[in-house]
Amino acid sequence: MTHSEVHSQPQAAVSVGVARESDPRELRVAVVPDSVPALARLGVRVLVESGAGAGAWFPDSAYEQAGATIVRAGQASGADVIAGIGAPAPEQIARLRAGQAVIGLLRPLTRPELAGRLAAAGVTAISLDGLPRTVSRAQSMDALTSQASVAGYKAAVLAADHFGRFFPMLITAAGTSRPASVLVLGAGVAGLQAMGTARRLGAVVTGYDIRPETRDQIESVGARFLELGSVASGAGQGGYARALSADEQAAQQAELTAEVARFDVVITTAQVPGRRPPLLVSAEAVKGMRAGSVVVDLAASSLGGNVAGSAADQTVLTENGVRVIGAGNLAAQMPAAASVAYSHNIVALLAELIRDGALTIDPADEIQAGVVITHQGKVIHPQVAALLQPATGGVPQ
Ligand SMILES: NC(=O)c1ccc[n+]([C@@H]2O[C@H](COP(=O)([O-])OP(=O)(O)OC[C@H]3O[C@@H](n4cnc5c(N)ncnc54)[C@H](O)[C@@H]3O)[C@@H](O)[C@H]2O)c1
To answer: Is the CB of 35 under 6 A from ligand 1?
Structure first.
């Protein structure tokens, strides 16, 4: 087992810098004031850029009261470890020096070139998206889960907000309204939270996933499992879905087109790691929906989404009166709750990585093997390194 330390002095306190996120739409912050005492117990000194928590309603004064030091813009990047939500911006990377570490959701499988840049700068890149999620020791660090859960909740609330009718059945003197029918495609963390939330709002909820083992989970949140006959099990590695063949995708889309038309609201959450999100709801399926229906595509991104024509952070009203919401980064729309959960994940990760007062990198450890992307000038994560080879670069279809 090889241990290499980012720090030379084992007993020295580790400083963690919290920079303002570079994306103006990113309102979350990686460390909240409540986490500062927990980090201090690990021997961590927290440096927070002034205003870093403002978007999530955590003022500088709350960080100071918790024991953090407020620094000017740009100064957090001098810390031993820079904790963020998204990837650092090019100007932030330019300020980094060899031996520093960056922690965030860096998406190295879809942005391998960023890993290449960080490796070249001698920066240790630690990306929470690579966490081995079935390792029970890793669950408290699972930022994908904590953020997907927030996003799934928000997707259901957003759908209810845009739907011109009630979600619950209401019996009043002015008449009775039938409950909304909601279909959620993809039953991972976000999908199950969307189902549970829509159910709590009173809708009649149906859920579908390509992995048959999700049936019990869908039913446990009070939804009905939608069975499709066209595609065989889509279970892949590590509890994730596999990518479908072109024929399977076409068959799935055709079968879903008939199903989708029956629902008032469709929320899509399907993802396959390191791939473009699968297209589940075709243009024809959207055309078949009733006027006033709402579609929320949680998978909408620059790489495409689960719904034809959806785009991240854009809402489209189709000619047949269907509102298609490309949800983009929904966790950032609930910045306080999302930041609190993310910050707990960061504390748990640092508790794992700090040994004898120093950040200790051990790529042989099963958790670190997933999250440590670059170290000592090299891209050490095999999948990311493979993507940087000229012959295999780019995001697979
Ligand atoms: N502590 C743990 O053990 C733990 C924690 C979190 C997640 N997990 C597991 O990890 C897995 C992934 O969770 P996630 O929320 O990150 O998933 P994800 O965001 O990668 O994908 C969301 C869902 O989309 C589904 N999907 C993909 N392609 C599809 C298609 N063509 N049609 C329909 N559905 C499709 C996937 O099966 C998945 O359930 C799940 O098995 C989850 O239970 C385990």
So the answer is: no
Report the separation in Å between the CA atom of 210 and the middle of ligand 1, taken as the mean of its atom positions.
Answer: 9
Residue 274 near ligand 1, beta carbon < 6 Å? no
Mean pLDDT of 366-375: 96
Ligand 1 centroid distance, CA of 229 (Å): 20
Q: How many C-beta neighbours within 10 Å does residue 238 have?
A: 9
pLDDT digit string, tens, across residues 239-298: 788 889 999 999 999 999 999 999 999 999 999 987 889 999 999 999 999 999 999 999
The ranges assigned to domains in the chain are 11-141+335-392, 151-328
What number does the ligand 1 atom closest to the CA of 243 have?
28
Distance of alpha carbon 176 from alpha carbon 56, whole angstroms:
40
Ligand 1 contact via 194 beta carbon (within 6 Å) = no
Q: Out of 2.60.120.40, 3.40.50.300, 3.40.50.720, 1.10.1140.10, select the CATH number for domain 11-141+335-392.
A: 3.40.50.720
Sheet of 224-225, strand order: 224-225, 204-208, 181-185, 265-268, 294-297, 323-326, 314-317
Under a CB-based contact definition with an 8 Å cutoff, are residues 256 and 185 in contact? yes
Strand pairing category for 124-127 and 372-375? antiparallel
Q: What is the mean pLDDT of the chain?
A: 92
pTM: 0.92
148 CB less than 6 Å from ligand 1? yes
pLDDT band at 12 (very low <50, low <70, confident <90, very high): very low
User: Tens digit of pLDDT for each residue in 31-56?
Assistant: 999 999 999 999 999 999 999 999 99
Both structure tokens of 114: 């960023």
Mutate to test the pocket of ligand 1, among 139, 153, 209 (most ligand atoms within 8 A of CB): 209
> Would you say the CATH fold of 151-328 matches that of 11-141+335-392?
yes
Give residue-wise pLDDT tens across range 151-174. Answer: 999 999 999 999 999 999 999 999
Q: What is the CATH number of domain 151-328?
A: 3.40.50.720
Distance, in Å, from the CA atom of 103 to the CA atom of 111, rounded to the nearest integer, reads: 15
